[in-house]
Write a structure and sequence with these properties.
The chain has 9 helices and 10 strands. It is α/β, with parallel strands linked by helices. The chain folds into 2 domains: about 170 residues, P-loop containing nucleotide triphosphate hydrolases (Rossmann fold, 3-Layer(aba) Sandwich), CATH 3.40.50; about 80 residues, no CATH class. The strands form 2 sheets. A 6-stranded mixed beta sheet has the order 6-7-8-3-9-10, sandwiched between helices. The chain has a 4-stranded antiparallel beta sheet with strand order 2-1-4-5, with helices on one face. The model has no long low-confidence stretch (mean pLDDT about 90).
């Protein structure tokens, strides 16, 4: 089972002073797929993400990664195992250049926080890999640009590059296209498709056209519970999904 599913949750639940935010969620994320977690506002999607990446402790239930119970592990341990949440862990340093941001992430992967003091040869090796990562996300032309000066969509691409520098086996993307122009949405969606070629992606996303285009499998949450699963054609026609998004009169 661990070979087929990279991440599983079993009866995952989270309560806040009597309010049940997540209630008995069972997820099975197949290895090498793009899996989307969707639902209306307040459905519990972000809470599930916070539980998976250990920013919250579950009230009940279990989380398994590569067949190992990680329910009580710390966030840093989860990242070292290869499950990295982009746009959360991979903070961009606004006053460093694009290349320097990726190099910092590479240093974190190597476990050397003081590589700035190491030899030029060691730094050159990091630069080469950093430039490869920038090329992979379409940012080669921005290598010397200070991060704070990047357009919003390009900044998101940089965040993906810094996440890729950690060599994740699984990426969790939290609203990767939120607040973007149509052009940026298309660019980031294409980038997600490329980086998912050799890893697993779990994403929370409100843009349903992006979900339809990218996802192999979709889990729909409402009121903290799973109400439907399947591909986009299946879940978009599910009566419970239609009611959750549009109201009972459209069911």
């Amino acid at each position: 089972m661990a070979d087929e599913y990279i991440l599983e949750t079993r009866s995952l639940a989270k309560e806040f002073k009597g309010f049940v935010a997540v209630n008995g969620v069972d997820l099975k994320i197949r290895r090498g797929r793009i899996h989307a977690l969707i639902g209306p506002n307040g459905a519990g999607k972000t809470t599930v993400f916070n539980l998976l990446t250990k920013f919250l402790a579950p009230t009940r239930g279990a989380i398994l990664y590569n067949g190992r119970d990680i329910t009580h592990e710390r966030p840093a341990h989860i990242a070292r195992r290869g499950m990295v949440r982009s746009f959360q862990i991979s903070a961009v340093f606004p006053h460093l250049t694009v290349l320097e941001n990726v190099r910092v992430a590479l240093q974190r992967r190597r476990g050397h926080s003081l590589d700035f003091w190491h030899s030029a040869k060691a730094l050159d090796a990091l630069n080469e890999r950093a430039r490869e990562l920038l090329d992979s996300v379409g940012l080669s032309a921005y290598a010397s640009t200070v991060a704070v000066e990047l357009p919003y969509g390009r900044k998101r691409a940089l965040e993906i590059a810094t996440t890729l520098a950690l060599e994740p086996e699984m990426m969790l993307l939290d609203e990767p296209t939120a607040g973007m122009t149509h052009e940026d949405v298309e660019r980031i969606a294409a980038l997600i498709k490329r980086v998912a070629a050799d890893r697993t992606v779990l994403m929370v996303e409100h843009n349903l056209s992006v979900v339809a285009d990218l996802s192999n499998h979709i889990t729909v949450l409402a009121r903290g519970e799973v109400i439907a699963e399947g591909d986009y054609a299946q879940v978009s026609k599910h009566p419970a999904v239609i009611q959750a998004y549009l109201g009972a009169e459209h069911g």
